[in-house]
Write a structure and sequence with these properties.
The protein has 343 residues and is of the alpha+beta class. Helix content is 52%, strand content 14%. It is elongated. The two termini are 46 Å apart.
Length: 343
């Protein structure tokens, strides 16, 4: 993934990195302060314990690696350095014995080197040798804050089974994390934290494919409908074409949206019109079908040939993936926290 795309969709990754950084410090700190008091139960198969301090270091290693990997596009080598510094700090502060002190100082030294190396690398592109320029958005697309979002469609999406199922999982994980931090058992906190991290990473992956102002697709299912569309402009983004269209749905208000496709289907650039397939319940889901109904395509081209002006239409905002689920998650989390507080 490019750094530019990563930063545009960065907040779920940043939140996941912060949680993993904190978990790395916490596990090392638990090991340093409680390991000497761990009670081991031994039998013929070996020794074990149900206390967190007994396996804290084994859990801290994947947490450290995960924090470094998730933060790498933000911080580069400095992300791994920060994780190592937090681990060494957790091992040193409040410890009850002198075991692994050399390991802690060694991790601190390596972490400091990585932080400095990452800082130097981050500063270097700002010098005179940097000739890169940021990419401008493709013409015909609008920023996410422009245009409008149909409230009825958003409410319908919020009530969809997939949205509610995701929101329930996310609310349970967030509630377990918050409850474990303040008053619950540690295992609840650990499960909630790692469950929240997993959901944040999944959200970040979904947002990497999101293009502000560009319709989502493909559209399928019994609810899909065909509608004529008028072309405003045709641009390219990488190897794909971006069609800036005004969609004219039957029985609905026209709206303007960009549709991305690797091929110039229906010769839209020649006829300045075409037929799109859209979801009337979620109007931001639009695509260009390869074989639309012939009659609908003929009518769209004939209408475009008779009129030079495109009917005025407001640009439709395309919600980022997970936006509706996040709102429902926040509401459900507040409800669950209130129930726990009153119980």
């Amino acid at each position: 993934m490019s750094t530019r795309v990563y930063r545009r969709t960065s907040w779920p990754w940043a939140a996941a990195a912060v949680l993993l950084f904190w978990q790395t410090w916490y596990l090392c700190h638990v090991f340093a302060t409680e390991y000497s008091g761990v009670r081991w139960e031994c039998d013929s198969d070996g020794c074990g314990t149900n206390q967190l301090a007994g396996g804290a270091l084994f859990l801290a290693v994947p947490s450290l690696v995960g924090a470094a990997v998730v933060a790498a596009p933000f911080l580069g080598a400095a992300g791994a350095g920060i994780a190592l510094l937090l681990a060494s700090y957790g091992l040193l502060v409040g410890r009850e014995d002198d075991d692994a002190v050399l390991w802690a100082y060694g991790l601190a030294a390596l972490g400091a080197v990585l932080v400095v190396a990452g800082a130097v690398r981050a500063i270097r592109p700002r010098g005179a040798g940097d000739t890169t320029t940021p990419q401008d958005p493709a013409p015909g697309t609008a920023p996410a804050e422009a245009g409008r979002l149909p409230l009825r469609a958003l409410l319908r999406q919020a009530a969809a089974p997939a949205t509610l199922g995701t929101a329930v999982l996310a609310a349970v994980a967030a509630t377990a994390l918050a409850h474990g931090v303040f008053e619950g058992p540690r295992w609840v906190m650990m499960l909630g934290l790692n469950g929240t991290v997993a959901l944040l990473v999944a959200l970040g992956l979904a947002r990497l494919r999101h293009r502000p102002g560009v319709a989502r697709g493909p559209v399928s299912g019994p609810g899909a409908a065909f509608a004529p569309a008028r072309l405003h402009s045709l641009t390219t983004r990488g190897t794909a074409f971006v069609f800036d269209l005004t969609v004219l749905p039957d029985g609905g208000e026209p709206y303007r949206i960009a549709v991305e496709h690797p091929l110039d289907l229906q010769h839209v650039h020649v006829h300045r019109a075409g037929v799109v397939r859209h979801d009337p319940r979620r109007p931001w889901r639009v695509d260009l079908p390869q074989h639309p109904p012939t009659a609908a395509l003929s009518r769209a081209r004939a209408a475009a040939a008779r009129a030079d002006d495109v009917p005025p239409a407001a640009r439709l905002r395309v919600p980022a993936p997970g936006a509706t689920a996040l709102a429902v998650t926040a509401l459900l989390t507040a409800v669950l926290m209130t129930v726990l507080a009153l119980a």
